[in-house]
Here is the input.
Amino acid sequence: MWCHRCGKALPAESNYCNSCGMGIIAAQVGTPQNPYSSINLPYKTDKIEASISQNPDDERVIFRIRPSFYSVGKAYLGAGIFSILAMAIFGYFRLPIGISLGLSLVSFIFPLMKHVQRNRVVYTLTPSKIEIDFGFFSKTVRNIPLRNAQDVTVSATMFERIIKVGDVIVDSAAQTGKIQMRQVPDPRKHAELILQQLQQLHR
Here is the structure.
């Protein structure tokens, strides 16, 4: 027998609950189930499993990167130094300050162009291909199948090796020849990822 208020198990002859003091109905027949017993709810994962299984392995993205900010930063730094020197020279010779401001603005055109070009390019690696995306509004996508790739090398200057920036060059047997991923961050890591996919593809 059970208390209908607190769910405590009671002897069959009890008239009151020893825990909460609730009066027990004498007409109880048998032993009802504990009102606080656990309820097992069904948990379905069919939809999740189906959505995962429907994703083809060829569309899995291993990495997606842009060129590093290194070359763009160098261009901005050069434009900034030129602007400071121009303003200092114009101020020293008491020349019109407007001309120096104009020259400073013109000097930033080249860094801005490099910045835009850098943001236009995206390199993507999947288990079957390398994708190179160009453009903002109208995009051009170049697909290079990994089955045509033969070798992967890294090219970087001494300073670029220190800051972990460089070019990843993929030798291809297709008509495109060499594929160059320019100024990517941590080029050795990304070259190793490409080599791993090549090894798995040729097993």
User: Anything to note?
Assistant: The longest strand covers residues 165-172. The first helix runs from residue 46 to 53. The chain has two domains: 1-33, 59-201. The domain at 59-201 is CATH 2.30.29.30 (PH-domain like).
